[in-house]
Amino acid sequence: MVSSETFDTSKTFGDLGLPASVLKGTEAAGFKHPTKIQAALIPVAMMGKDVLGQAKTGTGKTAAFSLPVLGLLKPEDEFAALVLVPTRELAIQVCREVKELGGHTGIEAVPVYGGKPINTQAKALERRPAIVVGTPGRVMDMHGRGMLPYDRVKVAILDEVDRMLDIGFRDDIRRILGAMRQRPQTIFVSATISPDIERLARTYMKDPEKIVTTEKSLTVAAVDQSWLSVEPWDKKRLLQHLLEHEEPDLTVVFCRMKKTVDQVADYLSKHGIDAHAMHGDMYQSKRDGVMDKLRGGRLSVLVASDLASRGLDVDDISHVINYDVPEDPEVYIHRIGRTARAGRGGVAWTFVQPDQGDLLSGIEMLANIEIPQKAYDDFTPGPVPSDVASYREAEKRRREELASARNRLSASVAPPTAAKAVDPNAFPGGVVPSALPMKRLGGVVRTRRR
């Protein structure tokens, strides 16, 4: 059943002005009705207008900008479209989707990103592809080497603009867009539109069409979500317990810090669970090896950081476990969007510590749902560690002493003090000047005329 909350069921992709070669790609991908962001953005982009589009993750926004770009370009175009993305993994994912959707157009797309040898990507650019998808740093590097000209760019797309600004790409974006002599058609796509993004749009766009959609994420409704209350010292044991007793299929465990990713992956491996880590500090070759295992079905548990998981596009992920509650509710949507792909259902469990209720509430407000608590009676929490017990006892005593001191202070009344007389002719400290200060002009002290 197609949800009218996410899809525009009154339209098909044939109604959006796309050429026949692109429509063949949508049919091959199994697309029937466009999502609301696709239905709104594609016709405007096909008219050549600048677009500032806001849509939640999981609403088909990659296809929303990829399809019109494929429709606007010709196979013989060279470096005609530049897509900027925040991470290597997202560059790979977006390029893969562009290739799949453009399979009947003859248009070539090439990804460029850090962590791979320059020579390999330089050879790909020698084919002079119509579309280049890349991270800002590698794009500037290739441009500086004369391998990626900006003067042929007809369409510039910035995907996940909010994320790019968050991780410090503002200056890089300005350098890239500012170096384009002829202003291209420009499309910004972002989960949120902040004042910073609007200022950036005003600088590099001409009368942009602002498109804001309110549809539900494709993934949120399809994911069975729940949360589990757990103390921080029990999290590894609870994770092990869930993986052993629930026996999920392919699972991604999200941690907030790289150090935690390594610790959790090591713990699971030592307890007989086939787990692999992936985070930004790993060599690209090692990350690629993990991704190959993941896509080849040779891996059962991936423990990942948020940044490293951007672009993680594998249809067979059945479970997402939020080992750490994300501080940004949007990150939660990104995480659970790794499951429930290609029409499948998915499961998301979130570990919530007793002091993290506000983070859970923020997620529920953003997703406009109430996430139920998952009861897990057969898991026995461990004892409170001695150092934690000592710390809590010390904190309790400190709060009691502080409250007692406040009570004593409020009970005592300070005697009134007489205000000191102030000499209006005195400088601070009570010094009365005997003459005007000397004037210093041009580094020379001037006294009297001679």
- Domains (count): 2
What is the mean pLDDT? 86
Please work out how many helical segments DSSP would assign: 16
CATH topology of the largest domain: Rossmann fold
What is the overall silhouette? Answer: globular
Q: Report the oligomer.
A: single chain
Euclidean distance between termini CA atoms: 100 Å
- State the total count of DSSP E strands: 15
Q: Which radius of gyration do the C-alpha atoms yield? A: 29 Å
- What is the CATH top level name of the largest domain? Alpha Beta
Largest sheet: 7 strands, parallel
Low-pLDDT residue intervals, each spanning 5 or more residues = none
| Class derived from helix and strand content | alpha/beta
Structure report:
The chain is an alpha/beta fold. The protein folds into two domains: 13-212, P-loop containing nucleotide triphosphate hydrolases (Rossmann fold), CATH 3.40.50.300; 220-367, 3-Layer(aba) Sandwich (Rossmann fold), CATH 3.40.50. It has helices spanning 20-28, 36-46, 61-72, 88-101, 118-125, 136-144, 161-166, 170-178, 195-204, 235-245, 258-270, 284-295, 306-309, 329-336, 357-367, 386-411, and strands spanning 51-54, 81-84, 109-112, 131-134, 155-159, 185-190, 209-212, 223-229, 250-255, 275-278, 301-305, 317-322, 346-352, 439-441, 444-446. Helix 12 links the parallel strand 10 (275-278) and strand 11. Helix 3 crosses helix 4 (88-101), helix 6 runs parallel beside helix 8 (170-178) and helix 14 (329-336) packs across helix 15. It starts with 19 loop residues before the first helix and ends with a strand. The relative contact order is 0.10.
